[in-house]
Every structure is written in structure tokens, then in C-alpha cells.
Design a protein that fits this description.
single chain, about 425 residues, ten-stranded mixed beta sheet, five-stranded antiparallel beta sheet
């Protein structure tokens, strides 16, 4: 399973240094579940019970901790190992702190690794922030006997919960990386689970099979058609959908009714999984962020127009798709948005009651684009979710209930529907 992109915040339930009590995995596990209940990510029921009894140190007996400072090159990580007693207190904090768990460096095999320091390259697989995983597992409404397709195996956390709640005979977990599937298969057996573990294309799923629940643990630009076709009557599919920008994600909730009809919606959400393999991403460089924060811009003005609020997520979801190419700097104290493709940017700072100081730079007037779209969004009754439709030609369209605000999700590249997760 992958983790969040670094926006709006990489870890909404960031890890903490373990106390003496939390150095015991059972106590740390109980503390993690309590935190998830307190923040609303977890409710009483089978998912909570599974997380309360699941020893994460069996699924992730090794994990990386970054030791280099931000900007230091090359970056450095230490691989902690449960078999080394001196590593256990810190590893317990990593596994049960709630933050992302870094499990793979530079595409390496997970089995048979030696503990110690790695430098350079990058982390290539992570186990998702626990609050996000828990809330999505709750959304799936898992139950005994359900057939589950877990797309994006990662460390095997989602597969383990599905096995415990639904029974392992109906669970299939799928990942493009054989190193991840090999490790997950071995470690799930250590937990007493024997689901079908497949190395293959996430977007293709398992052709010819049907599933009651399908869960994608990475973000895509459109819902894979093959997965919709594999959804059984009464089934639910969850997948995060976003453009190349990581700033304003949506959650696609696809259901097939008892009579076989597919209904779907795209909900604006605050956090999403990391982008899937090969998905293009646009980012703000540190130098670009500095320009946005300090330069005067080509023009400035005092405006009585308030920008849409952070809580207006339905607007920002629409902006992600209809304005295109925009990335927000969530580290900025005030609203700052850039278009790295053309170098345009804007920032808006409050300067008194109903007054904003606005600076704009570049060929795009992002401030005007935002307000023009905000007018359309309000005219469409300020939706926070959009109907998602699939036509016979494979096109996918998101639209407000009134139909006045809509967009098409990008058509698949010829290789996309056969790409890997």
C-alpha cells in the first residue's frame, strides 16, 4: 500500500516518539486504535477489532527512518529490524505512531535484507497513514464471506484486515512489484492468512472474476474500466482520483446495484493515496515557492473578494480538473497557488476586515480564474460531490446534480488500461 503525496500534509496523523508504555507493541497497538477512534477515523466494529489484534511488526518487521535533514544530499535512511532488540523501541513508534511507514528503498527485495544505513535513491513503497486506511476500510463495509480485491498490496495491511474480517478464501491482493507480493505472501502466512497474492496489473485486476469490494491503494487519473467490470452486484469500489496536481483529490465511490446498474460519485476529500506507478505529477520547487512568497508580482491589488475557503473542497476539486496545472503551497501561511508549467502564480493575504492583498505573476491570471470558477460552482449550488458516469465508449464524466458544472476525466493512454499498480 502506498502513502499520501506530500500535500496538503503528508501525515495527518503524524507519528510520535514512543513512551515506555508504547514500546510494548500490544500497548502501542491499543493506543493507536484509541487515537483513530478519537479522530473519527475508526468506529466500533470488525475493522477496529482487526486492527486491535493485528501485530504490524509481523507484516512490517523492518522499516526505514530518515536520518538526513531536509535538503541534505544524498538523503540517508536507517533500516530498523525487529530482530534487533536495540531497534524495537523506535520501530514500535514507527509502526504504531499513525504516520506512513517506509518499507522499500530503491525497489529492493524486502525479504532477506540486512539492517543498516541506505543513502541516495528514494523510498519506493510505503504503508499508508493509518487514519486514511482505517477510514477507507470503514467505508468499504467489510463483512464475512465478501470477495475482496485489494489493488496495491504494499506491506499487506489492507489484505490482512480483509482476511480477518471476510475470511481469506475470498481475498485477492495484487501489486505490480514482485518484491512486495513475495514479502506480503510470506508475512500474511505468518499471521495465519492465505489469500491469493498476485503480481500483475492493478488497472486490469483479475479478468473474468467478480468481487464484492475493490479497494485501490494508489491514486489514478480515472477509474480503471476493467475494475468496474469486475464489480459484482451489490459491490463497492473505492479509488482516489486526481489530475497531475496532488493538491485537491477526490474519492471515486462506485457501486453496482442488485440489478447490475453502475452508479458512482466523486467526492471531494482532504487526503489521498500516493500517485500510482508512472502517473505524472507536477510540483512546486523550493525556488518557485520562494518566488511566490517574496516577489511583488506583475501586479497587486486590494480586493474585497474573498477566495474560496479551504473547507470548500467541492470547489477545489473542480478547480483541480477545470483549471488545470495548478499546485497549492500548503506550507504557506496564506493562500499561494502556482502553475509550474508556465511560471504563473498568485498569493492572497488578508489585510483587514474583508480586504485581501493579492499579487499575481505570469501569463495566467490565477486569481481571476479562481473567482470565475467560484461563480460557476456557487451557481451549481456549491456541490461537494459530483455524479460520475461511464459511457459505452469508456468516457468518464463528473457533473454536479444540476449538470451546470462538469468535466471529463482524461481518456486512457493506449497503455494505461494495461499499466501496473
Amino acid at each position: 500500500m502506498s502513502t499520501l503525496d506530500t500535500c496538503p500534509a503528508a501525515d495527518p496523523a503524524g507519528g510520535a516518539t514512543p513512551t515506555d508504555a508504547e514500546a510494548d507493541p500490544a500497548a502501542a497497538r491499543a493506543a493507536m486504535v484509541t487515537r483513530l477512534e478519537e479522530d473519527g477515523s475508526l468506529q466500533p466494529g470488525p475493522v477496529r477489532d482487526a486492527l486491535l489484534t493485528m501485530p504490524r511488526e509481523v507484516l512490517m518487521p523492518q522499516a526505514y527512518v530518515r536520518r538526513s535533514t531536509p535538503g541534505e544530499e544524498p538523503p540517508r535512511w536507517d533500516l530498523l529490524d525487529w530482530s534487533a532488540p536495540q531497534d524495537r523501541p523506535e520501530l514500535v513508534g514507527v509502526l504504531y505512531g499513525g504516520a506512513s511507514v517506509l518499507v522499500q528503498h530503491d525497489g529492493e527485495p524486502l525479504l532477506g535484507r540486512a539492517r543498516g544505513t541506505r543513502s541516495g535513491a528514494s523510498i519506493t513503497s510505503m504503508s499508508t497513514v493509518m487514519g486514511l486506511t482505517a477510514s477507507l476500510l470503514e467505508e468499504l463495509d467489510l463483512g464475512s464471506g465478501l470477495r475482496v480485491l485489494d489493488v496495491g498490496t504494499g506491506a499487506g495491511v489492507t489484505a490482512a484486515v480483509a482476511c480477518q474480517v471476510c475470511g481469506d478464501q475470498g481475498v485477492v491482493t495484487l501489486d505490480r512489484d514482485r518484491h512486495l507480493t513475495d514479502a506480503a505472501a510470506a508475512r500474511l502466512v505468518d499471521l495465519g492468512f492465505r489469500p491469493q497474492v498476485v503480481c500483475g496489473s492493478g488497472e486490469q485486476g483479475l479478468l473474468g472474476r467478480e468481487f464484492d469490494r475493490i479497494f485501490m491503494s494508489y491514486t489514478v487519473k480515472r477509474v480503471p474500466t476493467a475494475l468496474v467490470e469486475q464489480l459484482a452486484s451489490g459491490g463497492t469500489l473505492l479509488a482516489h482520483v486526481t489530475s497531475a496536481s496532488p493538491s485537491w483529490p477526490g474519492l471515486a465511490v462506485v457501486e453496482r446495484t442488485a440489478d447490475g446498474h453502475v452508479t458512482a460519485e466523486l467526492r471531494a476529500v482532504e487526503f489521498a493515496h500516493r500517485a500510482g506507478h508512472g502517473m505524472e505529477r507536477i510540483w512546486l520547487s523550493e525556488e518557485f515557492r520562494q518566488r511566490m512568497a517574496t516577489e511583488p508580482g506583475t501586479w497587486t491589488q486590494r480586493s474585497m473578494l474573498a477566495p474560496p475557503a479551504d473547507s470548500d473542497r467541492g470547489f477545489w476539486l473542480a478547480a483541480d480538473h477545470l483549471l488545470g496545472g495548478l499546485v497549492r503551497d500548503f506550507g504557506s501561511e496564506h493562500l499561494a497557488i502556482g502553475a509550474p508549467g508556465c511560471g504563473s502564480w498568485m498569493r492572497a493575504e488578508p489585510v483587514g476586515h474583508r480586504r485581501w492583498s493579492v499579487a499575481v505573476q505570469g501569463p495566467r491570471d490565477i486569481w481571476k480564474e479562481i473567482h470565475d470558477l467560484a461563480d460557476r460552482w456557487r451557481a451549481a449550488r456549491s456541490p461537494d460531490r459530483y455524479r460520475l458516469s461511464f459511457d459505452a465508449n469508456g468516457e468518464q464524466r463528473a457533473a454536479s446534480k444540476c449538470g451546470h458544472l462538469s468535466w471529463h476525466l482524461p481518456a486512457p493512454h493506449p497503455l494505461d488500461e494495461g499499466a501496473t499498480s
